Amino acid sequence: MITGALRQTGRLFTLAAEVARAIFRRPFQFREFVEQFWFVAGVTILPAALVSIPFGAVIALQVGSLTQQLGAQSFTGGASVLAVVQQASPLIVALLIAGAGGSAICADLGSRKIREELDAMEVMGISPVQRLVVPRVLATMAVAVLLNGLVSVVGTLGGYFFNVILQDGTPGAYLSSFSALAQPADLYISELKALVFGFIAGIVAAYRGLNPRGGPKGVGDAVNQSVVITFLLLFFVNMVMTALYLRIVPPKGG
Amino acid sequence: MGIEVVVEGLTKSFGKQRIWQDVSLTLPAGEVSVMLGPSGTGKTVFLKSLIGLLKPDEGSVLINGVDMVNSPERDIYETRKLFGLMFQDGALFGSMSLFDNIAFPLREHTRKKESEIRRIVMERIEIVGLLGAEGKLPGEISGGMRKRAGLARALVLDPQIILCDEPDSGLDPVRTAYLSQLLIDLNAQLDATMLIVTHNLDIAATVPDNMGMLFRRELVTFGPREVLLTSEEPVVSQFLDGRREGPIGMSEEKDAATLAAEAGIARAAAPPRSIVPQLEPSPGLPPRRAVARRRERVLRMIDQLPSAARTAILRTYAQDAEAPTLPMPAAGSGA
């Protein structure tokens, strides 16, 4: 049981290392990358935007209500923006990429595997990792980074709207507290998180897709597992990265 | 000229289940070999091990100095370009048309112009008789057509080693006969080393230069076709005659009690097997260069062969210096 879990983990990391190496191996599959990028972006943009508005609102309302009770209402803007940019946005992006893009990637690779298409490719001397997995992982990473920008903006706007219109906050206080607390490093860590989460989502989807267990039902199970495993890893890695960030980067307001 | 494939001490298990062990054989360069075996004896696993798709537990597969079991990944990928593998059900890419499927290896591995690719692909499509179907998706054609398209794809890079996984399954007897002829013609044209995995007796009787058989987790025998065709080994003769009596049971092996019960029943003497002549390339094609090489090779090892096989081989070569094997009347042979 434990060795089984360790073996799976080891294989996952092996695939990650293989992908990292194959990224730099010629020829780069540019066409496949563009197609996959287009596909992943297509299935994630709209839901991401739609999720980020209420998410930004919820955070603004919650933080606003707390700060009001503490008498620190003028800091609502800074606090809610930081929460959206640093935490909510990369997670929303990663969940959508894993749920919408990753599951499709996993199902695609899995069905190719059971139809022996991947074996056929290997027999032709073409590495499926280089030909199929690398473009997909790069696509999820690129979409994650770009989508993270979109979600941050939309989430922040949503937060602003709810704070200013619904909670009678003042635009001036919102913006000034934002510039008092936030710094460029917050944006960098946000994008770095999105990049890492995109990588994880892509790798886990590819790993489960390349190793389905027995037949079409196995592919279904693999898709299911890939989404669950990605979520678990995301929240864990997010915790580690957040803890490191808070240790390493000095807070601006302090 | 094809490339010799040297297999030594190959052993493969899945978990605790041993598939076969200590398989050693040499596929002579440019010759056609057939691996026989009842269903479920790991013939396909053997094929996939040769090309490095599955990792055997022990042993080596040497091709041009590269060990397909233990060499670095990069060498294995490079060596695989010498191979053409025809999968059991074609293993075509479902999202591509037949044309794109067959053109795929060319587009990936060569820098040929699209017009050049078109010429080569259409030529191969014509060889396997799929003209007119090149625009179809794999899901839209029959299993036999998929198989032939898979063969065409395996052929576009002019492979030195061609592996066929049950080329006959899903084909009617007439198409199987055409396919047998096609394989021999390909050998004449490409002079590639070929290994065909099958349990079709017609292919086994007419196509190969060499034959082997896998049974009970072992290689029963491998050598010139006459060795297997004249063999008195119970497994081999049961298989070649397609009888129920013998060591092969419904689930691979029979238990001792059933065997003993069978031994009590006097079995009707099977008619002696006749060796059917091997197929010749179609008229207009060059002669198979492997024939002369094989003749030399077989005559050199003739002293080590069983006497029945020896007589058969000597009779063949004595009767006709040019004949590949016994030029016996084909009438009544059933092939």
Task: Outline the secondary-structure elements.
The complex is a heterodimer of chains A (254) and B (335).
Chain A: H1 2-22, H2 30-70, H3 76-114, H4 117-123, H5 128-166, H6 171-181, H7 184-210, H8 215-248
Helix pairs in contact in A: 1-5, 2-3, 2-5, 3-5, 3-6, 3-7, 3-8, 5-7, 7-8
Chain B: E1 5-14, E2 17-27, E3 32-36, H1 43-50, E4 58-63, E5 66-67, H2 73-80, E6 83-86, H3 98-109, H4 114-127, H5 143-155, E7 161-165, H6 173-190, E8 193-197, H7 201-206, E9 210-215, E10 218-224, H8 225-229, H9 234-241, E11 248-249, E12 252-253, H10 256-264, H11 289-300, H12 307-319
Parallel strand pairs in B: 3-8, 3-9, 6-7, 7-8
Antiparallel strand pairs in B: 1-2, 1-4, 4-5, 9-10, 11-12
Helix pairs in contact in B: 3-4, 3-5, 4-5
Describe this structure in words.
The complex is a heterodimer of chains A (254) and B (335). Chain A is mainly alpha-helical and 254 residues long. Chain A has one domain (29-248). Helices cover 86% and strands 0% of the residues of chain A. Chain A has helices at residues 2-22, 30-70, 76-114, 117-123, 128-166, 171-181, 184-210, 215-248. The longest helix of chain A is centred in the first third of the chain and has 41 residues, at 30-70. The radius of gyration of chain A is 21 Å and the shape is elongated. Chain A starts with a helix and ends in a 6-residue tail after the last helix. In chain A, 43% of the residues are buried. In chain B, 42% of the residues are buried. Mean pLDDT of chain B is 83; it is low at 325-335. In chain B, a hairpin with a 2-residue loop joins β9 (210-215) and β10 (218-224). Chain B is built from 12 helices and 12 strands. By secondary structure, chain B is α/β, with parallel strands linked by helices. In chain B, the strands form 3 sheets. A 6-stranded mixed β-sheet of chain B has the order 6-7-8-3-9-10. Chain B has a 4-stranded antiparallel β-sheet with strand order 2-1-4-5, with helices on one face. Chain B is globular and about 65 Å long. Chain A binds chain B through residues 111-112, 115-117, 119-120, 122-127, 131, and chain B through 48, 51-53, 77-81, 83, 85, 87, 89, 91-94, 104-105, 108-109, 150, 153, 157.
